[in-house]
Amino acid sequence: MATISTASMLDSNFDVDKLTYEIFSILENKFLFGCDDPKLSLTNENVIPVKGMKSGKQFNGKVRILSIDGGGSMDGILAAKSLTHLESYLRRKSGKPNAAIADYFDVVAGSGAGGILAALLFTRGKEGGPMFTADGALNFMVDNQRRISRTSPGGILRRVFRPANAEKVFCRTFGDLTLKDALKAVLIPCYDLNTGAAFSFSRADALEFDGYDFKMRDVCAATSASVRPVEMRSVDGRTKIVAVGGGVAMNNPTAAAITHVLNNKQEFPLCNGVENLLVVSLGNGEPHSGAGNLTVSPAAFVKIAGEGASDMVDQSVSMAFGQSRTNNYVRIQANGTVGRRLGNPEKVMKKSDKINMLAMAEEMLAQKSVESVLFQGKKLVESTNLDRLELFAGELIKEQERRKTNILPTVILKQASPSPRTSFATTLSTVSSC
After folding, report:
1. In 3D, which of 129, 112, 12 has the Cα closest to residue 67?
2. Which of 83, 197, 267, 356 fits a 20 to 30 Å CA distance from 369?
3. Is-contact 365 387, C-beta < 8 A?
4. Which distant-in-sequence residues (6+ apart) come within 8 Å of 354 by Cβ?
C-alpha cells in the first residue's frame, strides 16, 4: 500500500506553496465577491501535482471538520445536545454501538463553551479513545455550568468568571494532559491581552514548535474566561498568555478551522478546496432579542455583536461552499422562536434546572433549520435541525467507509510520543491532588 512520508512533502515546498496560493485566490473570490469564474476553478486539470503523490484526479476524499460556537444563550448546552444526537445517529447508521464523535472528525474547533466541549470529546482517555462520550460531555456541561460561570440578571457584561471553581473542575477532569494528548487536530481560541490579538491553541503547533504546548485545563480556562483574565504559561514556560474568552476573539471558529486545513499541507496533503471538506458548525442559541423593545442595553449590544459576527462567518462559509453547501456544510442554530415562547433563555439558565435546559435544547433542535443568505439575512427551510444532523451523519460514515479502500491517505496526523508526564497514571495522581 502506498504511503506519503512527511519528508517527501517537505521536499515539495514550492509546489505546495503554488497550490496553497491558488486555493486562497479562489476562496478570496468566493468569500468576498461570490465569483465563480471557471478560470479560477480548482479543477482536476489544474491541480498542481506534488512530488511523491498521485494526481488529484484520483482523490475524492473529504476532511471532516467540527466547529462549536461559544456564547449564545445556552452556555454550550445546545451544542452538547446536538452532539448527543449526532453520536446516536453515527452509532445507529454505522452499526457500531461504541462509536464516538472523535472517530468521525479530523479537526475540531471550539470557542468558549465550545472549546470545553472540544477538549472533553477529543482528549485521549485511559483506553486510548476519547475521555468523554457526547452524553458524558453534555452531563459535564449541565452539572458544572454554575462552577464554570455565573450569569447575573445584568447579562453578559456582568457574567463573572470564577477561576477558583473553574480551575478545580478543569484540573480534576484533565490533570496534566496537554494539547499533545488530543486525538485529532484541535483549535481552541482565546484573546491574548499580552499581544492584543486572538490566539489559537493548536495541537499542530504543540507538536511542531517549542513553547506552544499547553495543559488542557489551562486551555479550557482561557477560552471560557469572561470578564476576569486568566494568566498561564506553556508546559515548558516559554510562552505566557493573559487570556480572555474565545467568545470575544472568535465566537464562531468555522472559518478558522477551514483555513487551518487548507493551509496545512503536511496533515491534509490532498485537500484542494472546500469541495474536499465536510463541515458541521454548531451554534449555541441566539441571545434573547426582546422584540418590540426599542431600548437596547449595553449587554444586549455585546451579544448582538458576537452573534452578528457568528452569522457573518456562517454566511461567508455558505457562499464559499456554493452549490456543494447542501452536502458539505451544515449549520445547526436556534431560529429564535423558542426564546419568545419560553421567555428569556437567560432566566431559564439561571435556574440551573437540568430539565428546563435540556427541554429547551431539544425544542431548538426540533425547529425548522435556518439557512444564511449572504447580505439577505436568514431563511427557514423545511428540514429540522435534527433532520440535517441525521443526514450529515450519513455523509460522515460514507467518508469513513471510503477511507478503508482508498490508497491515498486523506489525513496524515502526527502523533505525539508517549511520555510519563502525559500518561493516564500520572494524570490520575495529579487529579487526586487538585
Report:
1. 112
2. 356
3. no
4. 142, 143
Structure confidence at residue 433 as a pLDDT band (50, 70, 90): low
HSE, CB side, 13 Å, CA atoms: give it for residue 286.
Answer: 23
In whole angstroms, give the CA distance from residue 315 to residue 249: 18
Nearest alpha-carbon partner for 378 in 340, 335, 339, 337 = 335
User: Grid coordinates 460522515 are at which residue?
Assistant: 396
Do the bridges between strand 368-372 and strand 378-384 make them parallel or antiparallel, or are there none, so unpaired? Answer: antiparallel
Q: Look-up: residue for cell 428569556? A: 344
- How far is the C-alpha of 82 from the C-alpha of 86, rounded, in Å? 6
**What grid cell was written down for 172?**
480534576
Cell of 245: 474568552
| Cα–Cα distance list, 84 to 76, 81, 120, 172, 365 (Å) | 12, 5, 13, 23, 11
Please, which residues bridge with residue 109 across strands? 67, 187
- pLDDT (tens digit, 9 = 90+) per residue, 84-130? 999 999 999 999 999 999 999 999 999 999 999 999 999 999 889 99
Just list the catalytic residues. Answer: 111
CA distances from 104 to 86, 93, 187, 400 (A): 10, 12, 17, 7
